């Protein structure tokens, strides 16, 4: 896609930048073309400059009654057909762990928003509601379409993906900071619903030096009531035992106006450590020795401390009910092993454009690439795989992966590195000339 030009019904040229630079014009022109777009044939609807099989890809002009505003949206399930540089591009669910969910778990609306079915009940009071987590029968593709609900880890991955943080372009260098990432996460939460509620209504980012997020945290607790459930998301600074046998978690920036104590019951801390061993190992290192960040999405019970004459009056006591951890590089790219981190850092250093598919709640036997290069001659992307273990179970899985990649992309049509041999990382496939 060249630039940000949109063609409206009737051939009028429209600039995406107007939403930021000239919002009055943006609203006026979309409103004027709204009815015409709805009644037009597919080929005459609003469109970007992307093409699929020689035909233009249409866009929708949508009206949001809650904000009385107009916007452009990709057609359902057509996001992967757009060019990678197009603002309407969306990753293909089949190339990540999203393929493990049954269709009802992630429901994409016509306006690009999604509704999800979570494994926890978003209740204001009381413990999280139990759910039936019995898996569905296995399908033809191992690990596919078995998960009927999304866990906090799946939600964390969805937020990261919807925020565009699984993609990397050379121009992102020096602009991907934890605070920027959390700002994008907050925006992504406005487009995700669960149990009829916007995730953004319950999502409180914790970011260094971001007083607005801190004020929002206290405002949500005041609004929701004396005791309520909400999500905290931030970068973990420390997770340490407390005198009562539980643990205290500190998020980066938590001292900057959040006025919050964050406790983790021992049982939940142990579950997090078992489920997220790489993150737990990273947090066990001194902060100065860590080569990566650990992100936490925490579903907490929060209440105001109202004890009279207490020095902590007006602070918030939050206790973690459940949650998920994710390890990310300095460039905010998730990874699942030290070998993946080495590849991600090398791709960034080489100035390559690529995606990092996420696992969501998929079982380990679901096959999808570790990375997908997006700047080669292959328009569908160039898959990359890192082999990092030698145990018998993994050897069997490796053979399955190799057979899948050979059948799908052709022998020699994918990149791999056997990191178990101590060999140097192979050269990356050549990029397109710029």
What features would you describe in this structure?
About 25% of the residues lie in helices and about 25% in strands. It has about 425 residues and is of the alpha+beta class. It folds into 3 domains: about 80 residues, no CATH class; about 180 residues, OB fold (Dihydrolipoamide Acetyltransferase, E2P) (Beta Barrel), CATH 2.40.50; about 80 residues, no CATH class. The strands form 5 sheets. It has a 5-stranded mixed β-sheet, sandwiched between helices. It has a 5-stranded mixed beta barrel with strand order 12-13-14-16-15, surrounded by 4 helices. Strand 9 and strand 10 form a beta hairpin. Helix 6 crosses helix 7. About 5% of the residues have low confidence. InterPro entries: DUF1173. This is DUF1173 domain-containing protein. It comes from Komagataeibacter europaeus (Gluconacetobacter europaeus).
């Amino acid at each position: 896609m060249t630039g940000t030009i949109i063609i409206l019904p009737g051939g009028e040229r429209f600039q995406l930048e107007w939403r930021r630079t000239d919002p009055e014009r943006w609203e006026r022109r979309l409103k004027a073309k709204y009815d015409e777009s709805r009644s037009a044939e597919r080929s005459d609807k609003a469109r970007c400059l992307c093409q699929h099989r020689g035909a233009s890809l249409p866009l929708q002009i949508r009206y949001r009654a809650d904000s009385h505003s107009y916007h452009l949206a990709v057609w359902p399930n057509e996001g992967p057909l757009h060019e990678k540089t197009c603002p309407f591009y969306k990753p293909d669910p089949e190339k990540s762990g999203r393929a493990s969910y049954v269709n009802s778990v992630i429901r994409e609306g016509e306006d690009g928003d999604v509704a999800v079915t979570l494994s926890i009940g978003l209740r204001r009071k009381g413990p999280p509601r139990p759910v039936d987590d019995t898996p569905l029968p296995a399908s033809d593709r191992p690990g596919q379409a078995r998960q009927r609900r999304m866990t906090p880890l799946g939600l964390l991955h969805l937020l990261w993906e919807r925020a565009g943080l699984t993609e990397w372009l050379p121009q992102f260098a020096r602009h991907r900071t934890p605070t920027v990432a959390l700002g994008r996460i907050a925006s992504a939460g406005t487009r995700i619903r669960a149990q009829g509620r916007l995730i953004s209504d319950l999502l409180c980012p914790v970011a260094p030096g971001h007083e607005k997020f801190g004020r929002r945290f206290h405002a949500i607790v005041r609004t929701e009531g004396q005791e309520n459930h909400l999500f905290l998301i931030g970068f973990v600074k420390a997770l340490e035992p407390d005198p009562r046998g539980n643990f205290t978690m500190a998020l980066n920036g938590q001292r900057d106006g959040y006025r919050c104590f964050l406790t983790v019951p021992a049982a939940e801390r142990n579950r997090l450590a078992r489920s997220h061993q790489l993150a737990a190992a990273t947090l066990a290192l001194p902060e100065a020795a860590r080569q990566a960040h650990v992100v936490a999405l925490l579903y907490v019970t929060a209440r105001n401390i109202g004890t009279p004459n207490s020095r902590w009056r007006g602070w918030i006591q939050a206790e973690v009910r459940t949650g998920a951890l994710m390890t990310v590089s300095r460039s905010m790219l998730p990874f699942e092993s030290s070998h993946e981190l080495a590849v991600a850092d090398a791709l960034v250093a080489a100035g390559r454009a690529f995606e990092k598919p996420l696992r969501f709640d998929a079982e380990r036997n679901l096959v999808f690439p570790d990375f997908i290069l997006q700047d080669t001659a292959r328009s569908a992307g160039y898959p990359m795989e890192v082999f990092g273990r030698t145990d018998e179970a993994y050897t069997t899985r490796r053979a399955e992966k190799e057979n899948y990649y050979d059948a799908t992309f052709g022998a020699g049509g994918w990149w791999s590195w056997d990191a178990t041999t101590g060999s140097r990382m192979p050269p990356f496939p050549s990029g397109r000339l710029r």
